[in-house]
Write a structure and sequence with these properties.
Layout (H helix, E strand, L loop, with lengths): L1 H33 L4 E2 L2 E2 L13 E4 L4 E3 L7 E7 L4 H16 L6 E7 L7 H10 L6 E3 L4 H5 L7 E5 L5 E6 L4 H10 L2
Helix pairs in contact: 2-5
Length: about 190
């Protein structure tokens, strides 16, 4: 009986030590992820935090054209993740279209609207949605869900504001209004 108790105590000690090491390593990773980008040989670190270089990507548009984020360096870019069935996404689309038509040129801005196509029943639904809302900004299809994972998109809509050098300035969770987009675009130098 005494050996059993000693064994349980020793095993508990190992488990506690393992949990402590695991938790400490996890905290280090979280802290490192939350730090602003560091300059590495004159280049900014790629990441998702404010000050990081946004990860580049290439996706296909509804028209079948390859579109890369790097194509839009030199422009203020809104990278917007959404689905057709999401009520807040539906709410923001008319405002995004108004901003695109009325203010995008003034602020040298672009919208890259990335549909999380893995969460849709078909790409035809996306095409129908774009026609219904008369969207004229680029709509890209994340057919494998890779970019929504890369950009840690858990809640939709989620938008990243990227400056003219490809640096993340802000992450917006939830729908944006035209006024908010104007304010955000005007805050980027």
């Amino acid at each position: 009986m005494r050996n059993l108790i000693i064994g349980i105590v020793v095993l508990s000690g190992f488990l506690a030590l393992g949990l402590h090491v695991f938790t400490d390593n996890k905290n280090v990773n979280v802290i490192n992820q939350a730090e602003p980008a560091k300059e590495v040989s004159g280049a900014v670190e790629v990441g998702l935090q404010k000050g990081d270089k946004a990860p580049d990507f290439t996706l296909y548009s509804l028209e079948g054209e390859e579109v890369s984020l790097s194509d839009y360096e030199g422009k203020v870019t809104f990278i917007n993740f959404w689905t057709t069935w999401c009520p807040p996404c539906k709410k923001e689309m008319p405002d995004m279209q108004e901003f695109y038509e009325e203010k995008a040129e003034e602020y040298d801005a672009e919208i890259l609207s990335i549909n999380i196509t893995t969460n849709e029943s078909s790409s035809q639904i996306v095409e129908d949605f774009v026609k219904e809302y008369a969207l004229t900004f680029p709509v890209l299809l994340d057919e494998n869900g890779e970019q929504s994972k890369t950009f840690a998109t858990i809640t939709i809509p989620t938008t990243y504001l990227v400056d003219k050098n490809g640096i993340i300035m802000k992450k917006i969770i939830g729908p944006m209004s035209k006024e908010q987009m104007v304010e955000l675009a005007s805050s980027v130098e």
